[in-house]
Amino acid sequence: MEIRHIRYFLAVAEERNFTKAAERLHMAQPPLSRQIQQLEELLETQLIERDSRPLELTEAGQFFYEHAVRLLAQAGELVSMTKRLGKIEEKFSLGFVGSTLFGLLPEVVRRFKAANPGLEVSLHEMTTMEQIQALKDGVIDVGIGRIRREDPKVKRTVLRNEELVVALPMGHKLAHSGSKIKLVDLLQDIVVVFPKTPRPSFADQVLDAFNDRGLKIFRLQEARDLQVALLLVAAGVGVSIVPKSVMGMKRADIVYKLLDEVDLYSPVIMSTRIYDQSETIKSFMNVVYSLYRAEGIPYIKPEQDE
Q1: Phi, psi of 163 (to 5 degrees)
Q2: pLDDT at 304 over 60
Q3: Do 131 and 149 touch, CB atoms closer than 8 A?
Q4: Distance of CA 283 to the CA centre of its chain
Q5: How far apart are CA 224 and CA 220, in angstroms?
Q6: In terms of pLDDT, which residue wins out, 78 or 249?
Q7: CATH number of 91-306
Q8: What are the pLDDT digits (tens) for 257-273?
Q9: What does the pLDDT look like over 13-59, one tens digit per residue?
Q10: d(Cα 234, Cα 168) in Å, to the nearest integer?
């Protein structure tokens, strides 16, 4: 059985008509009918009820169809992934969510480029959902995000759990408090979350943090991204929960305060293609973990270290 047999069968199964399927495949009907008959002979079972109008699939045909759809999709992904891997020694593309840029990501990239001087490295800001699709399409090699979104074609590795803090406008009543702040202290404020779209996103992690503690946000404002959220905070519009690494972007009109909450963090998650075990990927991971160790940053040990 060849891939073409699967493509031909899917066209007939979806069009429920040999003539329309042949037009879709840009071929004559008789050769298409012979190919389907040949497939049935290979499988030693009838896949299509030819006497019905429109055509109907047999029980075996329906079973084969459901698996054939996935198989053909995997074949397409395999082609794009293999093409990408064939160029891996020359190019490396990294997708990242904007909030990770304020942490160690720039230093990771600098060290990674130094360790791989012949490699052309490119960076692309994209959401976690966009990263997953870009990995499957062979557009990027690694994605760094924060959302736990599972996909059978993508391997997700939690690098570390980053503490969350609250960004307050300079004139806020809690801005100069000597103690940590609890989420309940923020319920009288407008809470600015980001990004507005697409969802799920970091915004949902923040909303879940309130909901998990039985707290209801009365006034909520959504911002396009982290930069806009911080501008709204600076303007005194509201407050915003952000990753602790954002504190590195100092502004005279924003005060960052630690939160007095248990298990309030945002994961930093690395995504790769499920079967991609290239040396370049391993080099990138080694740079990440070595930097964590050098900076004394707690991280989740990779499987081989456990």
Answers
A1: -65, 145
A2: no
A3: no
A4: 21
A5: 13
A6: 249
A7: 3.40.190.290
A8: 999 999 999 999 999 99
A9: 898 888 898 999 899 989 998 988 988 888 888 998 888 788 899 98
A10: 8
- Collapse the DSSP code of 227 into the 3-class scheme (helix H, G, I; strand E, B; otherwise coil) and give the result: helix
User: Based on the number of CB atoms within 10 Å of its own CB, is 11 exposed (0-12), middle (13-18) or buried (19 or more)?
Assistant: buried
Which amino acid does the sequence have at 81?
Answer: M
* pTM recorded for the entire structure: 0.69
Close Cβ partners of 200 (under 8 Å, ≥ 6 residues apart): 147, 149
pLDDT of residue 209: 97
| Distance separating alpha carbons of residues 128 and 200, to the nearest angstrom | 9
Question: Token pair 């050098």 is at which residue?
Answer: 294
174 contacts: CB under 8 Å, gap ≥ 6: 168, 181, 185, 257
- Give the H/E segment covering residue 122: strand 120-125
Place of tokens 């600076």: 234
Contacts for 226 with CB less than 8 Å, ≥ 6 apart = 98, 99, 102, 194, 195, 242, 246
Instruction: Please report, as a single letter, which amino acid is at residue 245.
Output: S
Extents of the domains making up the chain: 3-85, 91-306
Q: Give 181-230 pLDDT, tens digit per residue.
A: 999 999 999 999 999 888 889 999 999 999 999 999 999 999 999 999 99
Is 232 in contact with 240 (CB distance < 8 Å)?
yes
Say yes or no to pLDDT of 305 above 70: no
Q: Which fold has domain 3-85?
A: Arc Repressor Mutant, subunit A (1.10.10)
Other CB atoms within 10 A of residue 268 CB: 25
Spell out the residues 6+ positions from residue 212 whose beta carbon is closer than 8 angstroms to its own. none
Place of tokens 């923020």: 186
